[in-house]
Amino acid sequence: MLTKRIIPCLDIKDGRTVKGINFLALADAGDPVELAATYAQQGADELVFLDITATNEKRKTFADLVKKIAQQINIPFTVGGGISSIEDVGVLLEAGADKVSINSSAVKNPELIDLLSNTFGSQCIVVAIDARKRGNDWIVHTHGGKNPTPLKLFSWAKECMNRGAGEILFTSMDHDGTKTGFAIDPLTKLNNLLSIPVIASGGAGNKQHFAEVFAHTKTDAALAASVFHFGEIRIPELKAYLLEKNILVRGTQPI
Fold first, then answer.
1. Most buried in the list 57, 71, 125, 253, measured by CB within 10 Å?
2. How many other β-carbons are positioned within 10 Å of the β-carbon of residue 13?
3. Which one from 11, 51, 88, 220 is the annotated catalytic residue?
4. What is the band of 24 on the pLDDT scale with cuts at 50, 70, 90?
5. Cβ atoms within 10 Å of 255's Cβ, excluding its own
C-alpha cells in the first residue's frame, strides 16, 4: 500500500505567512522560516511555499526567502508564485527548492508545462489549480483566485497531466479556510481521471477530515495551512490518528 503524505502550506505575502477564508481576509500566521523548521521537526512529509501575490504584483518569488527556508529543512520543498520561465525555475531550484508549482502562468501559456517538464523532468513540476463550483461545473481561477477563466477543472487537469505535469495540487476555493472538510466529490473524480498524484487542498479543520479524504478518495497527499499554523493539529498526533484508522502515512508502520 502506498503511503500518504501530510503537507503544510506556507502562503506568503510581504515575507510573512498569511491565511484567509475563501482566499480573502488574510491574517498574519507567523514567520515562514520558523514555521518551516517546526514542521520539518514535527515530521511533515513535504512543504509547500506559495508567494500568493507574486503574479498579481508582477514580480518574482522571493528567492532569498526560499534559500533561508531550504537551509532549515530536510524534506521535499515545493515553491510557487510568479513562475513563468525556465530561468525562474532555475533560480528557485538553485535556492533549494525541490519542485516548483505553476498556476496562472500555466493557464496563460499551457506550453509552459511542456517546456518545464521537458527541461527539468515531470517529477519537478506541480500544476496548482484553484477552482470554485458554479452550477454543475468547477471553474478554474487564476491570480490568487481573483480571475475566473473559461477552463473547467477536470479537462484542464487532464490537459496538464498530458503536457507533463508530475502532480496536481487542487484547491477548492469554496472550502478554503472553512474547516468543513475537503472537497470529496471533485477529488474523487480527479483521482479517477488522472494517473499522476493529486494533492488535496482547502477545508481541513480536524484530524477526521484528513482520514475522510484518504479513505474516500485516492488522493495521494493532503495539504493544510491554518490548522497547522495555529497549533490546532500537530503533525505527530495527526499521523498517529491516521495510523489508528489503518491509513498509512510516511514515517509510520502498520500496527
1. 125
2. 18
3. 11
4. very low
5. 6
